[in-house]
Design goal:
This protein is an alpha+beta fold and 249 residues long. It has a domain at 163-249: P-loop containing nucleotide triphosphate hydrolases (Rossmann fold, 3-Layer(aba) Sandwich), CATH 3.40.50.300. 39% of the residues lie in helices and 14% in strands. The chain is built from six helices and eight strands, in the order H-H-E-E-H-H-E-H-E-E-E-H-E-E. The strands form four sheets. The protein has a two-stranded antiparallel ribbon. A two-stranded parallel sheet has the order 3-6. A two-stranded antiparallel ribbon has the order 4-5. The longest helix is centred in the N-terminal third of the chain and has 32 residues, at 2-33. The protein is globular and about 60 Å long. The N and C termini lie far apart (53 Å). The chain binds adenosine-5'-triphosphate (ATP) and magnesium ion (MG). Residues 150-151, 211 line the site of magnesium ion.
Length: 249
């Protein structure tokens, strides 16, 4: 009996190793697309996509992307490693169009206009990538043309799409937002752990969503003090307060 269990466990280990070996190239490909490739603007995305496809063909690294669209239009289905398969059996990983497998979105007559959020390829993939980055404690900057659903996507992901370890606070910058107001607002959401150390309640992660980050007016030297405060926070994991004491966050 013990022997049977042992051999079953070894088989599982071997299967898992095989699955992981088959996923290494697609994982690296995904990372390259959503790090190096994510810095491209719309026109250069075509160039990057062709370059990526050519290199994969040359190296014979599968799975290959479907011919249509750009490499950005597909996400990795990892064949059962984390993504479910219909029969729960491992499968060869494939590139899946972002919109495939989504549930149909219904809009009812009594749905408020402001609550309507039509899934598009941009909202679906931005939401997915936002979630992954937050899980790994990376700050996220969303840029894009006006009216492209950035605010709606982020608010929806933060309010409904994260697990309950996350606490989310929302604020919006305007031309009149000052560094003092920004600091007061952030401080008011943090608990004091001990002298000079602040943070969210224990075991929780706190996400601040700052809408319209670019809005604060330039001061006399051309800087935007509220943004400088946030930059300092990102770079040094803390802030120099107006009382000239350093706070770790
Ligand atoms: N996919 C969508 N589904 C539903 N509504 C949308 C969608 N895309 C945009 N809208 C609507 O367009 C309007 C603008 O969206 P939103 O405020 O999220 O844009 P934004 O990218 O944040 O723009 P800005 O850069 O000006 O802040 C909102 O009223 C939103 O409801
Ligand atoms: Mg917005």
């Amino acid at each position: 009996m013990v022997k049977a269990c042992h051999s079953t466990n070894s088989q599982v280990v071997i299967n898992t190793r095989l699955v992981i070996a088959g996923l290494l190239v697609p994982w690296v490909t995904t990372s390259v697309i959503w790090s190096v490739g994510a810095t491209c603007h719309l026109d250069s995305r075509y160039v990057f996509s062709d370059w990526m496809r050519d290199h994969m063909k040359l190296a014979g690294d599968g799975p290959m992307f479907p011919e249509q669209g750009l490499v950005y239009d597909y996400r990795l289905h990892d064949g059962g490693f984390t993504d479910p398969t219909p029969d729960n059996e491992p499968r060869i990983p494939v590139w899946m169009y972002w919109m495939d497998g989504l549930e149909e979105y219904d809009i009812f007559p009594d749905t408020k206009y402001s609550d309507i959020e039509v899934p598009t390829i941009d909202t679906v993939r931005s939401s997915f990538i936002l979630g992954k980055l937050l899980e790994l404690d990376h700050p996220v900057l969303c840029v894009g043309n006006t009216g492209t659903c950035k605010t709606v996507t982020v608010v929806s992901k933060l309010s409904r799409g994260l697990n309950k370890n996350f606490l989310c606070e929302f604020m919006a910058f305007s031309a009149r937002t000052s560094a003092n107001q920004t600091q007061d607002l952030i401080d008011s959401k943090l608990d004091r752990r001990r002298k000079g150390v602040f943070g969210p309640p224990l075991l929780k992660k706190l996400v601040f969503f700052i809408d319209d980050l670019n809005m604060p007016a330039l001061e006399i030297y051309g800087a935007q003090p509220p943004i400088e405060l946030i930059r300092q926070w990102m770079d040094f994991k803390g802030e120099l307060t107006i009382q000239v004491a350093y706070s770790n966050v």
